[in-house]
């Protein structure tokens, strides 16, 4: 039975490459055509594969529906939280997780710093869109037309002399973030607070959330915080793999700096 299941599941990645006829499926599995046909018929009955008019098989609509339902039911906060705690244990600084909801970027999780100087951010609170590192990562992943429309619609509060001044500067920053795959806020919201962030990606490679490490200048310098970037990115990658269902990395085994 396990061999039959294994063979049936092996058909799916084959068809992901494109439609295939019975002979190709049988050859790839190393079985007789009659065996391949039985497997294909079973998958077809469950809507996982579809037989075309030219007698070739492709992935079925039911498979895509199941995948979409699974993604929609994933809780990125639940998956990410152990990794955020592990990162906080290693670096000691405040760790945030943020998502894009209802035209705002919101914090959905926070692990407090072990140091006495704390940040005033709260779970459920919108971030400062034009300067926050997590917002830059999430918005940089939007299609270009959406980025431009959004940039023109936003206000640009001058929280500090380092705040993003206007739409042109914001679009330039988003383009850089999109290219490099990480973001910073070095005194853009509060002069004394620095932040580095990395994206959490879903199965399709799109950014579904962003996580960050933040710390005040009195605890670490901006340069010292930037030195944590490789660790932050590896943690985000571990969350992405688990969220996407590929080779999950337990938080206690997440790579150290």
From TrEMBL:
Family annotation (SMART domains): HTH_ICLR (SM00346)
InterPro entries tied to this protein: GAF-like_dom_sf, HTH_MetabolicPath_Reg, Tscrpt_reg_IclR_C, Tscrpt_reg_IclR_N, WH-like_DNA-bd_sf, WH_DNA-bd_sf
Keyword Lipid metabolism set for record: no
Gene Ontology BP annotations: glycerol metabolic process; negative regulation of DNA-templated transcription
Keyword Transcription regulation: yes
PANTHER family reported in the protein's UniProt record: HELIX-TURN-HELIX TRANSCRIPTIONAL REGULATOR, ICLR FAMILY (PTHR30136), HTH-TYPE TRANSCRIPTIONAL REPRESSOR ALLR (PTHR30136:SF24)
Protein name as catalogued: Glycerol operon regulatory protein
Higher taxonomy: Bacteria, Bacillati, Actinomycetota, Actinomycetes, Kitasatosporales
